[in-house]
Amino acid sequence: MGAIAQIPPAQRPSSPAPVRPTPVNQTTPASSALQPAAIGTVDVVPPGLKLGQELYLENCASCHLGLPPQILPTETWRQLIQDSQHYGAQLQPLVGPNLQIIWQYLRTFSRPQAAEEEIPYRIYQSRYFKVLHPKVKLPTRVGLSSCVSCHPGGDKYDFRTLSAEWQNAP
């Protein structure tokens, strides 16, 4: 499988627990909205993992919406970043340091998979995605393009900012 195949699926790096940011205030000037504690990602990314996030977005969000690692299990990410056949498209495989740096970022912020759980390859199959959207009536097959209807900043990796319809939802 590649350079990260030897890493046991359950192995996670030893790092402090992610800090939960507060949502960006809509009246905050744009310059301060980009500060690390206020960025719209799901968790604040420590400086040692910032390069991993940047490389992930550079390699993945250049073709499609960059998904937060939290919505898929670690094993899904492990397989996705090693497979040159990516949902029907042939990709240049990630190799060397970039692969390792992206993997460290993804495994730090993704979540464990239950032993009996099948590996979800689509977001609508992920129990984590469903847990993060408990009161949302989702279509059977949620796709990447449907994210921006509720998360208008999703194309900028901002999943904290919600559309007007969802800003004050319970």
Compile the SSE list and pairings.
Elements: H1 30-33, H2 47-60, H3 74-82, E1 85-86, E2 89-90, H4 96-109, H5 127-132, H6 144-150, H7 164-167
Antiparallel strand pairs: 1-2
Helix pairs in contact: 2-4, 3-4
Main traits of this protein?
34% helix, two-stranded antiparallel sheet, 2 strands, 170 residues, single chain, 7 helices, mainly alpha
Please, could you describe this protein's structure?
The protein is an all-alpha fold and 170 residues long. It has one domain. It is 34% helix and 2% strand. Strands 1-2 form a two-stranded antiparallel ribbon. Helix 2 packs across helix 4 and helix 3 runs antiparallel to helix 4. The longest helix has 14 residues. The chain is globular.
Q: Please bin the fraction of helical residues.
A: 25-40%
- Give the count of helical stretches: 7
Radius of gyration: 16 Å
Tally of extended strands?
Answer: 2
Tell me the fraction of residues in β-strands, as a range: under 5%
Secondary-structure element series: HHHEEHHHH
Walk across the major sheet and give the strand order. Answer: 1-2
Low-confidence stretches: 5-38
Name the overall outline. Answer: globular
Protein structure class = mainly alpha
Number of separate domains: 1
What's the overall average pLDDT, rounded? 75
**What's the end-to-end separation, in Å?**
44 Å
Summarize the structure.
This protein has 170 residues and is mainly α. It has helices at 30-33, 47-60, 74-82, 96-109, 127-132, 144-150, 164-167; strands at 85-86, 89-90.
